[in-house]
Design a protein that fits this description.
acyltransferase, single chain, about 170 residues, acyltransferase activity, transferring groups other than amino-acyl groups, about 30% strand, GNAT family N-acetyltransferase, EC 2.3.1.-
Length: about 170
Amino acid sequence: MELEIRQAKESDLARVQAMYARLVARMDRDGWNVWSDTYPRDAVGEDIKKGWFYLLLAGETLCGAFALPPQDEGEGDVPWEDPAAPARYLYRFGIAVEYRGKGLGKQALGKIEALCGALGARYLRLYVAYENEPALALYQKAGFTQLPGEFGEFLLDGTRLFEYAFEKRL
């Protein structure tokens, strides 16, 4: 299955939120409660308005989604290889439950890296919750470097999430 990336529109919001709801339910069922009933669902509308939310599609079928902002609130706290280099930050990256385990995560990362390069970024950076073992394995397999330390972030619902920082030079 070949994925394509398209910038999301406001008309995509409901189906993206439904995809995230199924993904959160799966995470809860599998015992790694990384996201919540409100996150990432409640952040997507603002991401779309800012123009940095994207869909992963096979034809018109929604297979995943992600946000790709050009900055991060906590970026100064992380020992990035080159902090001044242009970067994009991968947020809310999720593959739809029905497409997990089919190799789409790695394919999607390749497409996301190409998009970042086209947007002028020299690095793709991200954070992963320490208990999110599938994501940790994916990023390590895809050639991302884990930076030293553990970083904390407050989610929209007030929950504190401890994460590792990763980056990949493009």
